[in-house]
Every structure is written in structure tokens, then in C-alpha cells.
Amino acid sequence: MTATKGLEGIVATTSSISSIVDGVLTYRGYDIDDLAEHASFEEVAYLLWFGKLPTADELKSLRKSLSDYAPIPSELIAQIKLYPKHISTMAALRSAVSALALYDEQADEMTEAANENKAVKLQAQLPTIVAAISRIRKGQEPVAPKEGASIAENFLYMMTGEEPSETAVKALDQALVLHADHELNASTFAARVTVATLSDIYSGVTSAIGALKGPLHGGANEAVMKMLDEIGTPDRLEAAIQEKLNNREKIMGFGHRVYKNGDPRAKHLQKMSKELGEMNNDTRLYEMSVKIEEIVTGQKGLKPNVDFYSASVYTQLKIDQELFTPIFAISRVSGWTAHILEQLADNRIIRPRAEYTGPTDQKYVSIDLR
Ligand code: ACO
């Protein structure tokens, strides 16, 4: 038995949800470029769950279910108010989603219909939870979801209590489409491993949130923004990045296990970042990001991933840095739950082996002789 560090190149399952072939990402066979250009996030969620694009009636019915399920239990809001203020927003989200299961009588019902229904519920409630966490941390009361609004519009509305601009809704909706699924990434794998024991969907999504939180995965978008903030002004940029490279530090938002010639999602976020900068008459963040890309790609050959330009996009949408990774979760819960449904439809427990490298032939020594 020989271990493969990080399971690189290991094909751990079959899946018909998304694929990455020769650097092209598809959801259910649709190129991400096509979907980012034309589809709404709700259409994409439907596609991931049910394997086809919805008809107008199916989409209407999904939007209604998402809207009906969007409010969260008052007991959960009361709990969130008790969370310590120093914890990260992702730690709060992980705890809140775990607690959400306690208020769903269907939580342990394992039929396909019950799990599909819970997938829609989780998709509807994650944005409400994230917005509530954000407001409570600022000492504000949560804003109840608006009936009939899309996920993107509702999230921006619940975050501020104000009607968002059409531009902001469109930009966030497109970002959600781009983050919705990504084959067997770390958090999706965590979700599948958890439910493959026949544990419930809430446990699967809680595991996934825990995996997404790390800076090598979804946490990178917040780390990118921290880096841009630390650098501060363009005149300091070259020296700061050079110092990181000389110290062999990882530059957040660059590199990818699967893409070596660039992440197909990054170009959409780069375009969005440029357009938002031009609209706001402030292209500083965009220009700094482009400069960092030039240096890192030039010297290391590493290309930006989905997290790099999303940092400047979200900042320009006036979204707090601590919400960047939770927004990733708001989108990716569609993919996580689609994978959970797929796993459960043809389940086998996921139990790989480890190559043992510890000592052998040890003999027990009684405690008084140690
Ligand atoms: N900055 C500097 N060097 C890097 C970077 C980076 N961002 N990424 C990879 N490298 C270097 C490594 O140091 C390593 O060099 P070495 O062989 O000289 O030691 C080589 O490239 C290979 O990198 P690994 O870390 O082994 O690649 P792996 O496939 O295991 O990791 C990962 C992929 C985690 C994305 C990595 O590129 C990374 O840490 N990037 C920064 C964090 C990040 O942006 N994560 C988000 C990824 S996208 C997503 O999850 C949504």
C-alpha cells in the first residue's frame, strides 16, 4: 500500500454533476461560461439537483419554495445572539447550520423526497443565517427575508436592510453561479464522506462548511482581501509581493490542484471586478489585483483561481470581508446537496486505507517503568 499525498490524481467516485476536463468546467454538461452568461443561480441550483434546466413552471415553483423556506427559526436567531463576538463568521455559520437540524423534524428522514426537500430548505436558509450572523455581530437586529426575491437580491437586502441595486444583484447572482459546484473539491468530498455513513444531510453540510473554512480552500478569498488591505497602496505592491515570494510564502488566490493553465471561473470575476471599479470610479483594487497577477504568474507560472478576483468584486459590492467565505457557502450548498443526493442514491461507505509509517514490534511497558 502506497499513499498518495493529498489524494492527488485519485479518482474516488463517479459523478454526473460537474466535470473538469482539459481545464473546462461543466455543470451537468453545460459549460460554466455559458451558464455564467445566461443562467440565474436558481436555474443552476435546479440543474445541479435534478440534472436538467427547469421549465418556466419548475423554476417558478422552486423560487416559491426557496422563498417560503427562507425564514429561520426564532430559536436559532436567539442562539446566534449568544455566540461569542470573537469567533469567525464561518465558525458561526458551521455552528448555526448544525443547530438548524435541531429545528427540522424531517432532519433524520432519509427518503429521496425528504432529502431533496431538505436540500431546497438548506439553500433557502443559508443566506438568511449568514445575513443574520453578520447583523447580530454588528449589534443590529436581523432583517427578515423578502418574499419572492431571488437568493442574490434577498441576501443583499437582508445584509443591509436596503434594496440593493440591479448591478449588485446581477454581479452577486453571477458569482453564485460560478461558485455553485466544482467536482470533488475538499468540502464536497467531506460532505460525501459524512453522508456515506448514512448520516443526515445537515451533518454532511456542516462537515462541508468546516472544510470550506480553511484558507487553502474557500477561506482564500478573505485571505486575498487581507493581503490587498495589508499592501494598501499600489506603490508598495511590487516590494510586498516580491518579499512574500522570496520568503516562499503562498500567495492567496493563486494555484489550483486541478487547473494548471488557469481557472475558467477567474476570468468572469476579473471582468466583473473591472466593470464594478469603472462604475464606482475607483479601479484601485482591480489594478492592484492585475499587477499581483502579472508578478505571480510571471515569476511562478501560477494563475489566479476563483478566489482571487472575487475578493475585489465583493469589496466593491460593499460586502464585509468576513462574509466572503460564507457567500461561497451560500452558493456551494447547492453543489454539496446535489452531491449528497447523488451519494445516497448509490451509496457505499467511503473508507480508504492508510499506509502505516509508525514504529513496529513495540512491547507494552508498565507505567512505573516508563
Ligand atoms: N503561492 C505560491 N506558491 C504556490 C502557490 C501559491 N498560491 N500555490 C502553489 N504554490 C507552489 C507550492 O509552494 C509548491 O511549490 P514546491 O513544489 O516548490 O514546494 C507547488 O506550487 C505545488 O503546490 P501545492 O501546494 O503542492 O499544490 P496543491 O495542489 O497541493 O495545492 C492549492 C493547491 C491548495 C490551491 C495551492 O495552490 C494553494 O495553497 N493556493 C493558495 C490558497 C488558495 O488560493 N486556495 C483556494 C483554491 S480554489 C478553491 O478552493 C476554491
UniProtKB/TrEMBL annotation:
<dbReference type="GO" id="GO:0005975">
    <property type="term" value="P:carbohydrate metabolic process"/>
</dbReference>
<dbReference type="GO" id="GO:0005829">
    <property type="term" value="C:cytosol"/>
</dbReference>
<dbReference type="Pfam" id="PF00285">
    <property type="entry name" value="Citrate_synt"/>
</dbReference>
<dbReference type="GO" id="GO:0036440">
    <property type="term" value="F:citrate synthase activity"/>
</dbReference>
<dbReference type="InterPro" id="IPR016143">
    <property type="entry name" value="Citrate_synth-like_sm_a-sub"/>
</dbReference>
<keyword id="KW-0808">Transferase</keyword>
<dbReference type="InterPro" id="IPR024176">
    <property type="entry name" value="Citrate_synthase_bac-typ"/>
</dbReference>
<dbReference type="InterPro" id="IPR002020">
    <property type="entry name" value="Citrate_synthase"/>
</dbReference>
<keyword id="KW-0816">Tricarboxylic acid cycle</keyword>
<comment type="pathway">
    <text>Carbohydrate metabolism; tricarboxylic acid cycle; isocitrate from oxaloacetate: step 1/2.</text>
</comment>
<keyword id="KW-0012">Acyltransferase</keyword>
<protein>
    <recommendedName>
        <fullName>Citrate synthase</fullName>
    </recommendedName>
</protein>
<dbReference type="InterPro" id="IPR016142">
    <property type="entry name" value="Citrate_synth-like_lrg_a-sub"/>
</dbReference>
<dbReference type="InterPro" id="IPR036969">
    <property type="entry name" value="Citrate_synthase_sf"/>
</dbReference>
<dbReference type="InterPro" id="IPR019810">
    <property type="entry name" value="Citrate_synthase_AS"/>
</dbReference>
<dbReference type="InterPro" id="IPR011278">
    <property type="entry name" value="2-MeCitrate/Citrate_synth_II"/>
</dbReference>
<comment type="similarity">
    <text>Belongs to the citrate synthase family.</text>
</comment>
<feature type="active site">
    <location>
        <position position="256"/>
    </location>
</feature>
<feature type="active site">
    <location>
        <position position="307"/>
    </location>
</feature>
<dbReference type="GO" id="GO:0006099">
    <property type="term" value="P:tricarboxylic acid cycle"/>
</dbReference>
